[in-house]
Amino acid sequence: MARCSLCGKEDLCFTCPYCNGVYCAEHRLPESHGCPGLQLAKDHARRRIVESFTGLGLDEEPESEPNFVVRQVRKKRSVSQRKKRFSRTEIRHLIISSILVVLVSISLLGGPPIGILTGFARVAFFVAAGYWWYPTTIIVVFLGSFLVHEFAHKFTAQHFGMWSEFRMTSQGYYLSVIAILFSFPIFGTGVMYTSGTSDVEEAGKTNLAGPLSNSVIASVFAAISLVLVLLVGGVSLPFGF
Length: 241
Description:
By secondary structure, the chain is mainly α.
């Protein structure tokens, strides 16, 4: 038994022939762990193909022009490569992060200095008073914004054929604890890791997808608020909150 270099799972692991990393059955394929040596292996294979046709290395000049052209055809990504995959480790990290985001949302309802305790008390008060929709809306908005942000990164990366998975970080744990205890609007629980491309445009679009999705959500809520103000004078919040 060995420990996977990517997810840390103890399993009957495999050694990648390209990067010499040790990976579990789920991440043993080069595409599954974003193998940094995969492109090098492809270049080596292409070199051998050219040499088999010309009898020359890529660095050598042929004596005469060959009667054929070796083309590098860009292989289309298969449907399986574009499939929106989630590993068990990623799902576990997303669930933990979602719970932390919900706790931060409740803490913001309570306010400092001990927001989480006051927040639970206010949630119970709103529910008992029949205003259950108020804390529910806040939690759904924050949790939805977090998930949409991370999924926008992931699905965009997978659309371009990259490996992409969410992982919590130690810094994310600490920031979440501070946010929960002191009612700080911090939602940096983890990072969506991506690998498998050297294309600057694809990487840029992947990085932009998350903030852009949140901008769209903010614009939608701003438009809804404006419509409510113009039509019915806004929505009265319970007890002045």
